[in-house]
Amino acid sequence: MSRPRIPVLAALAFAPSLLTAARGVRRSLGAGTRRFDYTASPQFADGLFHNRLATTDTPSGSTAGMAAEFATKGRKGKPRQPVRLVTPDLAEQAADLAATWLGHATVLLELEGRWVLTDPVWSERVSPSRTVGPRRNHPVPMPLADLPRLSAVLISHDHYDHLDTATIETLLRTQDMPFVVPLGIGEHLSRWGVPDDRIVELDWDQAHVVDGLTFTCTEARHFSGRSLGNNTTLWASWVLAGEQRRVFFGGDSGYTPAFAGIGERYGPFDLTILPIGAYDVRWPDVHMDPAEAVQAHLELRGATLLPIHWATFDLAFHEWADPVEWVVKETANQGVALAVPAPGARFEPAGELPAEPWWQASL
Fold first, then answer.
1. How many other C-beta atoms are found inside a 10 Å radius of the C-beta of residue 23?
2. Number of domains making up the chain
3. Angle formed at CA 236 by CA 35 and CA 293, multiple of 5 degrees
4. For helices 322-334 and 290-299, what crossing angle results, to 10°?
């Protein structure tokens, strides 16, 4: 999450029962703030991971002041009407290339006949607590049990809105795929019972083949942490490549010139999946705004853009639909092919792209 653990802290300050709020927190922390030895990584120094580009992940201004502002901002950032959902219409066999956005950064990808799930979050809240913290603006469009057999689960970093303990534990029981993750996140997974042979842990610029697909861990500009300490695990974007098709998954990142290099080395991409929400002038380095996402898409040499990281959770101070309204205008100005599916809607980048402004019914 963006400093957007700020909403969690604000909610905790007003929690009616700290005992109830704390239930399950210790397990959800995973490896917590424990530090492990990753000195072989160029991204690791002085016991922590670092961005290659100078980055501030602490918002300007008073943390206490922002927590109070968030706690008192009312329904700004939330839809006024129920969010339109689509029940996913999935075939028995994965397509050559298709995507089903399930909300926030959770995308069910079909790539050359394989299924890959990104940053799966099925819980009601993105928080260490089950009763306190940012709550869903809409349900998940499909039950976790209805997922097809996955080839891999891909994780971008360890913030609660991208790495959800309950979802991981369910996938561990119901599926047999590996979890492909950046350095350090394997420590969280091990804490939750994932065996070593189901963890593929990579550094930036490292690659691994799973079920015929090549997963390359690439640079992002963000931070990590599930408790009071930051950056004990790495954050990443990902390149997914089959024999013919390529997808870029941005996870959660501020803009970085590294996107241009990724596009040169691994592009062009048939689909780029990039975050557009939870931006703010107080934390410009760690979250892109929609204009920066479009710039990143162009530098990545992407064909179709799927915007994520908006609509599902209220993690910033902008209005609920501001990110999508902005990205629609920006892509039109830049001549970029844009897919804006309602949560649960499946599309194929080679076909007709979803363009209906479905969100306007929720304003």
1. 13
2. 1
3. 140
4. 40
